[in-house]
Amino acid sequence: MEKVVEVEGCDEGKFEVTGLEKSNFVLSSPKHVADPVVYKLVRVDGNGRLVPATDDELMEVEGLLENEKREAHIVADTGQALGCTFNEVSSSGMPQLESSEGLSLSENTEADTEKLSTQLEETVPSSARSFSDDHVTQPGSVGEYLKPLDGPIQGGSSTYAGYINSKPDFSKLKGEICLDNLSIKELHEVFKATFGRDTTVKDKLWLKRRITMGLTNSCDVSTTTFVIKDNKLVKKDNEDGSNNVNLATGKEYPAVVVEYNVDLLNSLSSQIDEHQTISENNVAENNLANEDLAADQRAAKRVRKPTKRYIEELSEAESKEYSGKLIASPKNIGIRPLPSISHARPARNLPLEGRTIITRLDSLGGFGIQVPCVYRVRRSRPRKNVTALLKFHPSDMGMTATFIKRGLDVHGSHMVNESMNKVLEVNSTPGQTPQQFVAESNNEKSSTDLGQNMELKYVDTSGDTSDDNVVTVPTAKGGIRRKHHRAWTLSEVMKLVEGVSKYGAGRWSEIKRLAFASYSYRTSVDLKDKWRNLLKASFAQTPTDKGANSRKHPSMPIPAPILLRVRELAEMQAQSPSPNLSASKLSACGSVNETRPGYL
DNA sequence: GTTAGGG
DNA sequence: CCCTAAC
Questions:
Q1: Which of A138, A293, A417, A562 gets the highest tally of CB atoms within 10 A of its CB?
Q2: Is the CB of A529 under 7 A from strand C?
Q3: DSSP secondary structure string for all residues of A326-360
Q4: How many structural domains compose chain A?
Q5: What is the pLDDT of residues A100-121, one digit of tens each?
């Protein structure tokens, strides 16, 4: 009982401290930070027996840690250390420690919701919670994804746990403890087995908790009946709560078990309802609901994390090319007290830089303080989606526009004739028009040489022209330009051949400019590569085979005539590799014609 | 910035 | 298609 009293006193003092810290934030933090480290060391040496600091100090630190943790999410190490320390300390007077911890938690919670703090007389379980938080938080990169969850979890765990846990009455808890059956001795044994050391703590609950945590990897597992998953409070009748799988993300989270007091629970229920869904069975139910809930929570509480929602949406949005990204973000942003978060953690946080970066990211999304760079990176990744979208997009809408554009370009380049205009006018349908267009253009220019009606047949012009945009996709990676595979159409090939014949192989930039003006997505390199491939193909294949060059892949059946031409051109150019520029240009038309005619 | 070549 | 070396 005395303990309790002390705790309360501490609590209040701590309260004050906390308040100060909050106001001071970063400045105050260093001191606190220092403390944690020391404690940590002490703890290691002392096997938990040593109590380095006064209760007040501990409480302060803890409170700080808690707060910061909550805010920053980054603190894992110190937080754990503290938690351990407390636990260890508790060996001597465990109730105090825990209570203090609990108090700190309650405080934190309180900060968010001040009402409940008063309700809490004692806090028991906080240490566990801190662990859980830390773990969750730590995953860093993964955290991006997790964060959304974390936010809820932490908020939920800390807040709810705090409130719920606040019950001083161990008897109740004990009753619920699974390990209850074991005697203290047994528990000690188990404890030793688990941690490799003895413990003097005689409190069953504590032992059980410790053991459970140890087994579960420092998740806060306690005897509770309720487990907080994601955002939800789930009754854990059947589950042991050691590990919960987050359905939404599919990731495993350490289950946070909350020891609760029925009375408190009831009193809190209303609040909980607002933020979390309490359900026995439906965890899955909430995926959708979670977001809303989370958002609400944040709004209500003053959310700390960028919020998973934000992230998720962002990611989605990105994948979709920035559709309507931040539904949730606004709330968060508005609500969030940005400043408080980062400061406390010394080593890890990069207050300024990190912030800046984050901010930047946020700005992209709209706002997200903690929005992780990592996530961003990740997000950018999904090329496929983008590509698909892009591809898809252009086909319908783009076609017409493209076509027109192309027509214009061609016209400008003197490639086209009057028919072009006609075509343009005529074509309301994307698909058809292009064909005509191509056919005509080809006919005019190289009609004789290429000759053949092949052109008409094969001319497919259809899709290719459409998207300039799609072609180039900036990648998150260093490299940027990833062209999605764009099959060469026959028309393109013909143009290429034509261009080569006119300007000569190797003058890719020229060809690109003049002959492929309309195909913005084909670079000179592409032309070169394609030409190379054509050459290869042309030589590989027998020219005799004109009619059908049934190549293996239907995708790119290059008409024999074209291959022939390619071969010719190649041979021809091999003979007269480098005419001078002017000469080549001048002679281009003529030479081509000359050369080819022979062939035909 | 282009071109050639290899991967 | 991508990347790089060489011009």
A1: A562
A2: yes
A3: -SSHHHHHHH---TTTTTT-SSS--HHHHHHHHHH
A4: 2
A5: 333 333 333 333 333 333 333 3
